Amino acid sequence: xxxxxxxxxxxxxxxxxxxxxxxxxxxxxxxxxxxxxxxxxxxxxxxxxxxxxxxxxxxxxxxxxxxxxxxxxxxxxxxxxxxxxxxxxxxxxxxxxxxxxxxxxxxxxxxxxxxxxxxxxxxxxxxxxxxxxxxxxxxxxxx
Length: 143
Known about the structure:
single chain; mainly beta; Jelly Rolls; five-stranded antiparallel beta sheet; four-stranded antiparallel beta sheet; 9 strands
């Protein structure tokens, strides 16, 4: 039997908005996209996990960017994914990137999860145009 012990979600950008793009910083700088806090109650850390889901809307501005997405728990990187984003001057192509991570055996207490993006290709530009959503579901196994 499993039970939900906490759930948090944030949606800092609800929909696609080409008028207010968020430029993605070049590595090693990071653009913070969203934060959530998950609380794990007192229990055996070997009996829980946190399912994390993120969705980010992107647009290439110039060149072909490689965007590195990272999820951190309490400042420590726990997940990384990468997506290519191509600029097309003849049309406005938007990309929706969705990724999931499972953080296992999380210790008791409150934990801050953060999702970031960074452009790892110099000479290219990409931007977040929305939507952005980030959620976490903490689940414990009962014995």
